[in-house]
Amino acid sequence: MVTQIISTMETQVSNGPSGTSLPNGPVISTNGSTDDSKTNLIVNYLPQNMTQEEFKSLFGSIGEIESCKLVRDKITGGLSLSPGQSLGYGFVNYVDPNDADKAINTLNGLKLQTKTIKVSYARPSSASIRDANLYVSGLPKTMNQKDMEQLFSQYGRIITSRILVDQVTAGISRGVGFIRFDKRNEAEEAIKGLNGQKPLGAAEPITVKFANNPSQKTGQALLTQLYQTAARRYTGPLHHQTQRFSMIPSLGKGPDPNNSSKPILDNLLNASYGVKSSPTLFPRFSPITIDSMTSLAGVNLTGPTGAGWCIFVYNLSPEADESVLWQLFGPFGAVTNVKVIRDFTTNKCKGFGFVTMTNYDEAAMAIASLNGYRLGDRVLQVSFKTSKQHKA
DNA sequence: TGCGATT
């Protein structure tokens, strides 16, 4: 049975900010420490391959960041070659509480590759909320998330819950789930009360125990997970050289314009690939090769000069902002930077912007899909950014 | 029909 890898990833959770809302500025408590409950956010369900830099770039587009951290695995990080595998969540602390609020409003629910990110206020860090996540197995297949919450809610406040579903049969329960309580002692009580018990009408007893903390995984489990994550990245379509470039002349064909009344993000998600190329496994073409080919075609591309592939987006509305570009391009792969060009005096978008993507394949896919895409009452024109200086 | 750089 194939199951969703995402479902096994542990994520951290949050509540709303504690206390009443206040105007701007950091709040200094009586003991001298700063209260960051209105500026500090937790971000869950980040794409596995998102880097600290991409994370900072995305949230930095909202406002000034006091600090941010993509949480990574200690064990793989300890192997010193890599920074450690992303655990799929992170924290962002803004300088201004208004920016934290804005980040929640504009970035919560943003689709990036195969994930839908969650942005919410972080609960203050405290020992009592740690290790409060439970793993439940043997659940009746008919039991849904709400039923499970009902069963567990007598023991405390539930922060999140989920039931794992089989991927190929589209949503049949695996009889396995997770329940996170607000406090560890609530989780302990739930184990005492429910482990080995039969839910009403169930044939078999359920097992309730503390969930594995991802940072406590064995080296073997981590290697397995790394392998699975890597394998998923490379299962997308590969194109040999001529196929790659034949994609460019076909740019006029974006998503069906007649279908543009559908929610944009739904269309994008269906069109997107979770493909990420590896320089080691699939060496990409050198900028020299690309330049010589595109010069023949009378087009100059800005190559992957360090940062990545720069994409020009034309026909944005005057109201467009960075989050629009993240939403449009994020589903196609790693985006390192977005920029809406504004008139300095009016602060309105001048009708165009730029997006930088790390990988050629993902950038080409984004262009092929988004060029000609109808955004509101406008039809976008999307292409690689041209080089003005050396244009023929 | 328009390709930044107020970091």
Automatic annotation (TrEMBL):
The keyword Endoplasmic reticulum does not apply. Residues 39-124, 132-213, 309-387 form the RRM domain. Pfam families: RRM_1. One of its GO terms (molecular function) is RNA binding. Keywords: Repeat, RNA-binding. InterPro entries: ELAD_HU_SF, HuC_RRM3, Hud_Sxl_RNA, Nucleotide-bd_a/b_plait_sf, RBD_domain_sf, RRM_dom, RRM_euk-type. SUPFAM superfamilies: RNA-binding domain, RBD. PANTHER family: EUKARYOTIC TRANSLATION INITIATION FACTOR 3 SUBUNIT G. This is ELAV-like protein.
